[in-house]
Amino acid sequence: MSKKINPVESVQKEIKFACKKLGLGESYYELLKEPERVLMVSVPVKMDDGTVKTFTGYRAQHCTIMGPAKGGFRYHPDVCLDEVKGLSMWMTFKCAVVGIPYGGSKGGITCNPSELSKGELERLTRNYLRAINTIVGPEKDIPAPDVNTNAQIMAWFMDEFSKLKGYNVPGVVTGKPIPLGGSQGRTQATGYGVTVAVKKVCEAMKIDITKTNIAIQGFGNVGSYTSLYCSQNGAKIVAIGEWDKEIGTYALYNEKGLDIQKLFDYKAKNGTIVNYPDAKRISLDDFWALDNIDILIPAAMENAINENNVKTINAKIIVEAANGPTTPEADKILSEKGIPLFPDILCNAGGVTASYFEWVQNLMNFYWTKEEVNSKLEHILIKAFDDVYNMQKTNDVSFRKAAYLVAIKRIADNMKLRGWV
Ligand code: GLU
């Protein structure tokens, strides 16, 4: 990519636009333009070969007026201060769009987890918790999985925090394994929620989901469950874009539709889908430019749709499953091309909503069935979609801007009532 996108600046522009459109004064923007707190820490790890390596970790908490901060932490070589800050800001607005009582946060460690052994990952996670332990906790800030972090990592995190406190604190983190107080349905929740959004989009645009071709970039947690549930709802998943250690980016294509259950089984067996036999392997450039796609779902990293590929995109609709997958410039071009885009802070909010349920269950020590979780999840996500859809209709703005209007209006009402402005 030729231009470095600063996620903080992108969100600031959205906040500014929303404050103006809602008739709010500068003070609201001043309160929202930067995270309340950012902690940067050194995380030393005793490596398997006996040497010590120090990694850089972060935790940003954006705005806590609606409740404790909430957001995942990721392990990735690109993790940096601005990325973590920007992601924490998105979390505030994501929680406010769906109306759950949280502020936004995000954390991460700059590292390449594929180069770390299981023991090194465990020590990294435990030492990260020790470094940030004073600012997290069930009433302060509740982390969760994000890119390259999973239930096992949440288990180590919860264990280390509980040891420091001297008693079990399951509510310090969500996305835990079920025996440790994790919630039914949490692992699948983001993909489940993206599928609820896809169904609502089809309903709103009067499209029959069983006649849609879908392309998904990413087959990690979010991409894989999104493809599974969309295909179970009758959509044809014709392409999946992925990344491989050996060959870099690529995509699998099958115009008759990929068998997603078979792909899951193949990945469980081989750890990758790169040599999956029942598909043609195409380049990621060709993936973006496919001309038979109804719904394109970026479900990997930020800035996936950017000035280099946006002009080649022919999909009819975009549903964002990753956080920040479209650059502001690409966003503009898509709207000029008349391609409606349904934004991340609405469409991928299923994960954090199920995290909210997990935290509530931890605080109550009373656990729900998967059916209860999914029906509550669906209820919240459908209402959020309708709120954003109606906001878009009354204000004639993009769906992204409408989502910010819904979120910032809720936060601003709280600020006014509490006397912050
Ligand atoms: N990392 C997820 C997100 O970006 C989930 C956060 C959470 O569950 O707290 O929405």
SSE layout and pairing:
Blueprint: H1 7-21, H2 26-32, E1 37-46, E2 52-61, E3 69-70, E4 73-76, H3 81-98, E5 103-110, H4 118-132, E6 141-142, H5 151-165, H6 189-204, E7 213-217, H7 221-232, E8 236-244, E9 248-253, H8 260-270, E10 280-282, H9 284-288, E11 295-298, E12 317-319, H10 328-336, E13 341-342, H11 344-347, H12 350-364, H13 370-395, H14 399-418
Parallel strand pairs: 3-5, 3-6, 4-5, 7-8, 7-11, 11-12, 12-13
Antiparallel strand pairs: 1-2, 2-5, 8-9, 9-10
Helix pairs in contact: 1-2, 1-3, 1-14, 3-14, 4-5, 6-7, 6-12, 6-13, 12-13, 13-14
This protein binds glutamic acid.
Glutamic acid binds next to helix 12.
Question: What does the model show?
Answer:
It is a single chain. By secondary structure, this protein is of the alpha/beta class. Among the domains are: 33-168, Leucine Dehydrogenase, chain A, domain 1 (Rossmann fold, 3-Layer(aba) Sandwich), CATH 3.40.50; 191-347, Rossmann fold (3-Layer(aba) Sandwich). 45% of the residues lie in helices and 16% in strands. The protein has 14 helices and 13 strands. The protein has helices spanning 7-21, 26-32, 81-98, 118-132, 151-165, 189-204, 221-232, 260-270, 284-288, 328-336, 344-347, 350-364, 370-395, 399-418; strands at 37-46, 52-61, 69-70, 73-76, 103-110, 141-142, 213-217, 236-244, 248-253, 280-282, 295-298, 317-319, 341-342. A seven-stranded mixed beta sheet has the order 10-9-8-7-11-12-13. Strands 1, 2, 3, 4, 5 and 6 form a six-stranded mixed beta sheet that branches. β7 (213-217), α7 (221-232) and β8 (236-244) form a beta-alpha-beta unit. α12 (350-364) crosses α13 and α13 packs across α14. The model has no long low-confidence stretch (mean pLDDT 97). Bound molecules: glutamic acid. Glutamic acid (GLU) is lined by residues 70-72, 144, 146, 174, 323, 348, 351-352, 355.
